[in-house]
Amino acid sequence: MERVLFWSDIVVYGKEVSRFTHITTNANFEVFCILKDTSPSSNIAANITIEEVAPRDSCSATEVQSGAHIILALQRLESGNFVWHEAHVLDSASYDATSDNLNTAVSVCGLQQVALPTDYSSDSANPTCPSVPMDVTCYSGRGATHRHLLVTVITVFIHISAILLLDSCTKLGIV
Q1: Is residue 72 located within the same domain as residue 157?
Q2: Same domain, 58 and 130
Q3: What are phi and psi of 80, to 5 degrees?
Q4: From 59-68, 92-101, 121-130, the region with the lowest mean pLDDT
Q5: How far is residue 22's CA from residue 89's CA, in Å, rounded to a whole number?
Q6: Confidence of residue 125 (pLDDT cuts 50, 70, 90)
């Protein structure tokens, strides 16, 4: 989770409200708070559209249940809408918004500037944004610890395996 959130331009906490079809299946998403936004157009509303949530290819690991509170990594499209940011093959862009995951999320470098959506309504019944501990030592994505190095090695192994599998499937005419 930390690696995906570190490399993502945008990370939000919220819930998928509904899905609708316009060529592909898109989703209406309610943003409770913005955990990270390094995009040039840093203007994220309380209700956004996420494009192409279905159909997904077999390399996508993101699954979102409508109504579930989640932490979600996103990329902004030129249209102003968003897509899931799955950093690598088989990475998920979505994580359950448990208290442990929210605490982990705000420990990722770049996620300490928690903000509300631009059109936030104070009479909203939304959950509160997570608080950032004053003494947080953030995850920098540089593999500084053995755990992070191990995650990197495993990720590289998975990526190479996926490439080899895709190549085999292509040769057999499955893809």
Answers
A1: no
A2: yes
A3: 95, -15
A4: 121-130
A5: 25
A6: low
CATH number, residue 113? 2.40.50
CB within 8 A of 141, min separation 6: which ones? Answer: 2, 3, 6, 7, 108, 109, 148
Task: With cut-offs at 50, 70 and 90, classify the pLDDT of residue 170.
Answer: confident
Pick from 64, 52, 58: which is nearest to 24 by CA? 52
**Domain extent at residue 165:** 142-175
Cross-strand pairs, 163: none
Rounded to 10 degrees, the C-alpha dihedral 28/32/36/37 comes to: 50
Are 32 and 117 found together in one domain?
Answer: yes
Which pTM value belongs to this model?
A: 0.71
What residues are paired with 28 via a beta bridge?
Answer: 18, 49
Cis bond upstream, residue 127 (ω within 30): no
